[in-house]
Amino acid sequence: MAGGSSAHVPNEPTIENRQSRHDYEIGETLECGIELLGTEVKSIRAGKVSLAEGYVSATGEPPALSLHSVHIAEYPPAGKAVQHEPVRVRRLLAHRKEIRKFAEEVKRKGFTIVPLKIYFKNGRAKLLIGLGTGRKSADKRQAIAAREMKRDIDRAMHRRK
Length: 161
What we know:
The chain is α+β, with helices and mostly antiparallel strands. The chain has a single domain, classed as Small Protein B, Chain: A. Helices cover 31% and strands 33% of the residues. It has 4 helices and 9 strands. It has helices spanning 18-23, 38-45, 96-107, 137-160; strands at 15-16, 24-34, 49-50, 55-59, 64-68, 71-72, 90-93, 111-121, 124-134. A hairpin with a 2-residue loop joins strand 8 (111-121) and strand 9 (124-134). The chain is globular and about 60 Å long. The termini are far apart.
């Protein structure tokens, strides 16, 4: 396989946090690397991850992003001696400029950084994070109605062709 290829390998999972798109209005997104242990990587490849309760904290000085409350299950074939903690704080890897930008946005009222997706790119685990504002239940209903309306329009256009 060529070195510059960024194609997704079909047997590697993509773990999405679909609930976050429902609960938050996602604005800007950023692809970060994750600092993981070997057993955590194996567990992610097996798809044993839960992003539902997770969140990201950002600090401007020193610039750092950290992932909290994401559950990566233990990898049983590794044995008890080398297991990782399923829920621990994991460091995220991004450029200083991007981290500072996200940290400034979080200081503004109502913004939070949400983990959206974990996937593999060129053999390395990546985390897609998004800057979001919380939705109220009325906003959620409007989003659902708009999505259903778009789906109906797409169906009608498909039948027309």
